[in-house]
Amino acid sequence: MRSDSPLSVRLLTHNVRYATDSPFVGEEVWAVRRPRIVNELRFNTAHCNESFICLQEVLHNQLVDILHGLNGEGDAEWGFVGVGRDDGLSAGEYSPILYRLSVWNLQSAETIWLSPTPETPSRGWDAACKRILTIGLFQHRQSKKTLVAMSTHLDHQGAKSRSEAAKIILKQIDQKSHQGRLPVFLAGDFNSQQDDDAYKILTNEDSTMKDLFTISDSEGKYGHYYTFTGFGKDETTRIDFLFVNQKVHSWLVKSYAVLENKFDDKVYASDHRAVSADVAIP
Questions:
Q1: Residue 166: φ, ψ to 5°
Q2: Which residues are within 8 A (CB) of 119 and not within 5 positions of it... i.e. 6 or more apart?
């Protein structure tokens, strides 16, 4: 039976930085960063079973490590949807969506490539890398409420590819939401600041999407403003976002936060900070 009460959901997105064999100055190897990422995810989803974790730059071995860290040795609590961008299987970076198996029923999932040939592994326009959009349709087992979750990582070099990718994503939002009938959230690293065309396309007057930062009141905001820090040498920017289709659904925004990525030990868990929000769907 479907509940009429709003359903509270925690959203978290984090570019965890791929596991490189040649770290930058100030960057630790994945074996050092791994427990910090896992502990961050575990702590920030511990008190909301309905949490979704959206990640970027995740290689297959990192995904295995993160799931093992969240699940431990017992029965799997967390599952995921997503594929590696290089071959549609396990090669290359994932943009996975993690969810609790006992809380959400996965009704469908797919990955598309942000290119002129979205059904096959491919690079679009002036992009330096293949780029993907991970999509999941989930039904809450208890309340029977349904939502669409999306995770992505736009190109760091190609401005045209980011703009075209934003247009593809909006079309997918329209299709997967059945022209706005379902709530949708979009999470990721967009390599796009607010004055970049990709961000403007995603939030223009014709779009149903709203940046959760812009619709959160000041009393509900916590933490940093900038989401990309590098490893101490780069200019900080805000390029990681959580969007919801606020224009067609009455999402209740309870809180918004940009979390810390370096503590007293001076180790950067990633060159990005996680973005988190507490929301509710009607």
A1: -60, -40
A2: 112, 113
pLDDT in tens, 187-210: 999 999 999 999 999 999 999 999
In the DSSP assignment, the letter for residue 107 is: E
For the CA atoms of 112, 55, 201, 128, what is the dihedral angle to 10 degrees? Answer: -70
Res. 248 pLDDT band, cuts 50 70 90: confident
Rounded CA-CA distance 85/70 in Å is 23
List the beta bridge partners of residue 78.
100
DSSP-assigned letter for residue 156: S
Residue 270 one-letter amino acid:
S
Structure confidence at residue 84 as a pLDDT band (50, 70, 90): very high
Whole-structure pTM value: 0.97
Side-chain-side CA neighbours of residue 218 (13 Å): 0
CA distance 99 to 54: 9
Q: Sort residue 171 into left (φ over 0), alpha (ψ -120 to 50) or beta.
A: alpha
| Residue 117 confidence (pLDDT) | 98
Are 131 and 83 contacting, i.e. CB atoms less than 8 angstroms apart? no
CA–CA distance, 198 with 166 (Å, rounded to integer): 6
The 10s digit of each residue's pLDDT in 35-50 is 999 999 999 999 999 9
Phi-psi region at 191: left, alpha or beta (left = phi > 0; alpha = psi -120 to 50): left
Q: Answer yes or no: is pLDDT of 243 > 90.
A: yes
Return all residues near 54 (Cβ < 8 A) that are at least 6 apart. 11, 12, 13, 14, 95, 96, 97, 98, 134, 149, 151, 187, 188
